Amino acid sequence: MEPLLEHLTPTPQSSFRLYTRVDDHFSFEWHHHPEYELTLILEGYGRRFVGDSIHGYEAGDLVLIGPYLPHTWQSDESSSDNTAVVIHFTEAWVKQGVGSWPELQYLARMLDRSTHGLLFDERTRARAAEGLKALSSMSGLGRLARLLEVLYGLASDPKARTIASPGYRRSSRPIDPRIDRVCRFVNDRINEELTQREVAAMIRMKPTSFSRLFKRAMGKTFIEYVHELRIANACRGLVESDDPITDVCFRSGFNNVSNFNRVFRRLVGVSPRAYRRQFHEPAARA
User: Fold this and answer.
1) According to DSSP H, which parts of 222-271 are helical?
2) Nearest to 266 by CA among 214, 234, 228
3) Are the CB atoms for 238 and 245 separated by under 8 Å?
């Protein structure tokens, strides 16, 4: 998708931008910007979109987003309290620091990898969260030192993994309003019946032309995008309820159990039943 280019205004009192986002609902706002972004979810749960990746998130989720990497967080309808700590810092700030102080060389590799987004290990996230939450009450050199300390901890995480696929390519081009409209429409109606022909007609395009546009912008087909969203919903339903798998299937937007099982195994690697068992059996033993 070609994302909205967001313009961020730095403050004269700080070399980086820090704010706490509090909202009843994190809406789908596909965007990118030239700054690096570090986002910690304090409250809430839903779906995280980074490049061509779609995954669930919950409290404690911590990711580093590189420049011009499109992203958004969309909270679930049942998630009424949503809070995130967000930090932005510029590429120029990083290059100046790394070039001037050899002690900051540890940042270089991590920031290079962040061009595809980075998700950190659970222990690393917990340690970093304490430092990030403390930043809002700090100022001056102490606040800068604390941020560098947090970044050092993240850069030392051997289990940090990239989020977007290796083949994903970023773009600094502005948003295509047709693609943005389509993604908002699909995200709002993901549990309903959706056809490529219907969506193409909505933006007054032929299905074949729409298919090429969507694949070029998103790096995946329209059907693949819909399947990933629905499987993300199904995963949450399997973990958070004891409802029959067929109910989870239909509630997630699939109208055929066999197709649901096949798509689920392809995207998750195991069957829906085995996926549920991975979560429920440890809880039963405890």
Assistant:
1) 222-240, 245-251, 257-268
2) 228
3) yes
> For domain 177-285, which CATH number applies: 1.10.10.60, 1.25.40.340, 3.40.920.10, 3.40.190.10?
1.10.10.60
Q: What is the CATH number of domain 4-162?
A: 2.60.120.280
Is the sign of the CA dihedral 144, 150, 151, 153 positive or negative?
Answer: positive
One-character DSSP codes across 104-173: GTHHHHHHHHGGG-EE--HHHHHHHHHHHHHHTT--HHHHHHHHHHHHHHHHT-TT-EE-S-TT-----S
In this structure, what token pair is assigned to residue 87? 């930090």
pTM of model > 0.90: no
Cα torsion 185, 268, 112, 152: sign: positive
Q: In the predicted model, what is the mean pLDDT of residues 238-247?
A: 90
Give every CB contact of residue 98 below 8 A, 6+ residues apart in sequence: 104, 105, 107, 108
- How confident is the model over 65-87, as pLDDT tens digits? 999 888 899 898 888 899 999 99
Could you report the per-residue pLDDT of 106-162, keeping only the tens digit for each? 788 898 899 999 999 999 999 999 999 998 888 888 888 899 899 999 999 999 999
How many Å apart are CA 246 and CA 240, to the nearest integer?
Answer: 15
